Amino acid sequence: MKQIIAVIPLMFSAGLMSFSASAAEQDFSQCKVKLEKAAVAQGIQQSTIEKGLRDLKPIKRVIKLDRSQPEFSQTFADYFNKRVTSKRVAQGRKLLKKHRALLQKLQKEYGVPPQYLMSFWGLETNFGGYKGKMPVLDALATLACDPRRDSFFTQEFILALGLMEKNGFEPQQMVGSWAGAMGHTQFMPSAYSQYAVDGDGDGIVDLWNSTEDALTSAANFLAELGWQRNERWGREVLLPSDYNFKYLGAKDRLPLSQWAEAGVRQANGQAISTPKMDAALYVPAGQAGPAFLAYENFNVIMRWNRSENYAIAVGHLADRINGAAPLQKKPPLQTRLSRAQIKALQQSLIDLGYELGKADGIMGKQSIAALQQYQRSQGMIADGYPSEDSFKALSIKL
Fold first, then answer.
1. Phi/psi of residue 238, each to 5°?
2. Cα 190 from Cα 158, distance rounded (Å)
3. Domain named Peptidoglycan binding-like: which ranges (predicted)?
4. CB atoms within 10 A of CB 366
């Protein structure tokens, strides 16, 4: 009798797993039907649709990766130090020399300096060393069938089918990131369709195998996003010891003359120049870490990838490739916070009456502003950073 009782839970568990797997397969099959109808409605040829959907499979790992993007889950030090390395700087300088003729041509045509194209290339795929191995159609379909951002990825999936149709790509050729980004510079299908350029003149826009196509496309993309000729992305700065962080983040863009009057100086201690440009202040690791004044081209980089950490890494790597020194103030080593811990902090602030939207586990602009208000009310340094002191003040255990 004991043996029979012991077996029942195992059988029941196995049955649940089988039912769950079967249900997931059924849901994906139904989603494939929706994707096919959407593709037909947007004019994709039936032969392309059949080829693209024939062997389509969901990828469980894609959903996991979508929920833990490093741009939003790592500390600034973890993110920055893994991406802006001496090895990557040296490789960027080497490739800048190798492709100088092409890069100078692109700068003249699109206004984007060579070091920035090298930086994007380096951060996206380590200069083509790793372009991703995920089947793009499978990854996009997986995300299109997930309710979090289904509309966005449905459109990206259809555009990927359009790229197959236009360029004669086979599904197995189209490999990339978990999110469906492709080639040397990791273009999403929408960017590929709208901004990719045939840089080598062979009649095919191939971002996987043509460096000329990839770099030309990147320059065109940045120009279309609003790149400002003859302006840099931003710079590391030193804040006065008594800075109160009244102005912080994208919402507080001030003239450089006003930052100078507030005592902000270059990282080397010299006074900042004050051309008629606006800048915003960023402290990605809080007051304990480096500070940056960012200009309009920082916002352009953010239109490529909506992460402040990414934009700072791109900008500083470009500076280093162009001969600049490392950061004067190294990013401090800080405890990596889980999404659940950030949610707890956000919910505590909401419970205290601070408006920041939904507790989603991501320290966005509203959450930073709310935390600043709370820190200021407690007589703390109001840098908006979720420090251990902030958790302690809110009675949240780490």
1. -110, 130
2. 9
3. 339-394
4. 15
CATH of 12-67+132-181, one of 3.40.190.10, 3.90.230.10, 1.10.8.350, 1.10.10.10: 1.10.8.350
Span 338-394, pLDDT tens digits:
888 999 999 999 999 999 999 988 888 899 999 999 999 999 999 999 999 999 999
Query: What's the Rg (C-alpha) of the chain?
Result: 24
Confirm whether 12-67+132-181 and 74-130+209-333 share one CATH topology. Answer: no
Q: How far is CA 207 from CA 105, 247, 281, 343, in A?
A: 19, 41, 35, 39
How many angstroms from the chain centroid is the CA of residue 292?
19
DSSP one-letter string for 69-130: -HHHHS-HHHHHHHHS-HHHHHHHHHHHHHTHHHHHHHHHHH---HHHHHHHHHHHHTTTT-
pTM of the model: 0.87
**pLDDT (0 to 100) of residue 48:** 96
> What residue spans define the domains of the chain?
12-67+132-181, 74-130+209-333, 339-393
Rounded Cα distance, 84 and 335, in Å:
20
Task: From 71, 132, 121, select the one nearest 91 (Cα to Cα).
Answer: 121
Q: 């908006």: which residue's tokens?
A: 384
Q: Which residue is listed with tokens 């990605």?
A: 284
Low-confidence ranges of the chain (pLDDT < 70): 1-26, 68-73
CATH of domain 74-130+209-333: 1.10.530.10
Give the span between the Cα atoms of 160 and 153, in whole angstroms.
Answer: 10
